[in-house]
From TrEMBL:
CDD domains linked: HTH_ARSR
Lineage of producing organism: Bacteria, Bacillati, Actinomycetota, Actinomycetes, Pseudonocardiales
Gene3D superfamilies in the record: Winged helix-like DNA-binding domain superfamily/Winged helix DNA-binding domain
One Pfam family of this chain: HxlR
Positions of the HTH hxlR-type domain: 7-106
Domain of life: Bacteria
Designated name of the protein: Helix-turn-helix transcriptional regulator
Signal peptide feature range: none
């Protein structure tokens, strides 16, 4: 295994694509493209402002694309890109890790809080 240093660029990218709303947006878009209001319904706790900001971050980082359809009236859809889709295995691995380690983490938290 090679040694890798976590740089400012690494931290910034991870912060932008693995934050609370971005993960939920990527999960929602894995099935099919969605319009803005469909995303809001899929993620009921997100505010319009937070959803807009997260979509812009994901689009800027190449994880999501914003597509204006030629229908009448004009509609905008958000789609996961191949780059965004490449995160799926990593996200699945993180979810597996959290599921496996959560009991140990909860014990450590309880021990810390009791001390």
């Amino acid at each position: 295994m090679t040694e890798t240093t976590l740089t400012e660029q690494h931290r910034e990218l991870l912060d932008q694509v693995l934050d609370k709303w971005s993960l939920q947006i990527l999960e929602a878009l894995c099935g099919s493209p969605l319009r803005f209001n469909e995303l809001r319904r899929a993620i009921p706790l997100v505010t319009q402002k937070s959803l807009t900001a997260a979509l812009r971050r994901l689009e800027r980082n190449g994880m999501v694309e914003r597509v204006v359809t030629g229908t009448r009236p004009v509609a905008v859809e958000y789609r996961i890109t191949p780059l965004g889709d490449s995160l799926q295995d990593l996200i699945d691995a993180l979810l597996h890790w959290t599921t496996e380690t959560l009991p140990a983490v909860e014990r450590a938290r309880a021990s810390f809080d009791d001390a």
